[in-house]
Design brief:
binds adenosine-5'-triphosphate; binds magnesium ion; 271 residues; 6-stranded mixed beta sheet; alpha/beta; 41% helix; Rossmann fold
């Protein structure tokens, strides 16, 4: 938890985030190690996306601080943040490619925005290298509409690595993909770490993927850290909450809150 420690790339210090009265993150302190893959798991709505949005400062803390390279970033102006964000790649759940641009134009978009490189041959070389990383060299002229879901995610990943970031944040990278395509993404995350030393922070529901790629797994529950350790220690965690989550079991609390909503449906239906 020490932001002075040079093994850490990102540190969240006593991070609390409220939306109105709802406290989504409650005094979370967490550091992410350089060159490692940290996976964040937890039930829907527990604050995983909110947490990673603080790392790129798309959201600002209600309380607490965010550090990148030991430098506080949560209080920077948008212009300064834009510079910091060039060192971070992000892959959102939707993939969010620009539909009106070819694959190559999509990948080169951040390069055009954030670098002065304009030499056509050099740009083509960058796009080719990034596409080769994700196994899609040759797809340069395709439009996103012609790609499968898995291919779109891989192009989005190629775009996320276009500026050679130190860290990549993934929000549910395998959701909606079949097991084979999910595994392609898992292998890519592993490869980026091995070949380029990239630090990854991955939000996922997928325990199989988590176990495969994670150096460390963090489980969030009710805005706090419920468990933190390697895959084995999570599997063996004494916490009921963790055990239920990894086994995909529902808790008494969940059932109670569902009964409330079933009641709501029934009453609303009668009206
Ligand atoms: N901009 C916002 N304004 C208000 N509430 C928000 C906002 N963003 C998130 N929330 C609330 O914060 C809580 C956590 O949301 P978050 O998106 O982080 O969940 P999650 O853990 O990523 O869930 P999922 O697994 O379903 O993606 C939810 O109750 C959500 O409604
Ligand atoms: Mg989410």
């Amino acid at each position: 938890m020490n932001s002075e420690n040079n093994n850490y790339l990102i540190t969240l210090k006593n991070l609390t985030k409220r939306f109105g009265k709802l406290a989504v993150l409650d005094d979370v302190s967490l550091s992410f190690e350089k060159g490692k893959t940290t996976v964040i798991i937890g039930p829907s709505g527990c604050g995983k996306t909110v947490l990673i949005k603080h790392i790129i400062v798309l959201l600002r803390p209600s309380e607490g601080e965010v550090y990148f390279h030991n430098e506080r970033i949560d209080n920077l102006h948008e212009k300064q943040l834009a510079k910091v964000r060039t060192q971070m790649g992000f892959l959102f759940q939707s993939g969010a490619l620009f539909d009106s641009m070819t694959v190559e134009e999509n990948i080169l978009f951040p390069v055009m925005q954030h670098t002065k490189i304009r030499d056509r041959a050099k740009l083509q070389e960058i796009a080719k290298a990034k596409l080769a990383m994700v196994g899609l060299d040759g797809f340069q002229e395709y439009y996103p509409a012609k790609l499968s879901g898995g291919q779109k995610k891989r192009v989005a990943l190629a775009r996320a690595i276009a500026l050679e970031p130190e860290v990549i944040l993934y929000d549910e990278p395998t959701t909606g993909l079949d097991p084979i395509r999910s595994d392609v993404i898992n292998e890519l995350i592993i490869k980026l770490k091995k070949d380029l030393g990239i630090t990854s922070i991955v939000v996922t529901h997928d325990m199989k993927s988590a176990t495969k790629i994670a150096d460390r797994i963090i489980m969030l529950h009710k805005g706090r850290i419920e468990a933190d350790g390697d895959a084995e220690s999570i599997q063996n965690s004494p916490s009921q909450v963790v055990q239920r989550f990894i086994k995909g079991e529902i808790s008494e609390g969940d059932i109670q809150s569902m009964q409330v909503s079933f009641e709501d449906i029934k009453t609303n239906g009668k009206k």
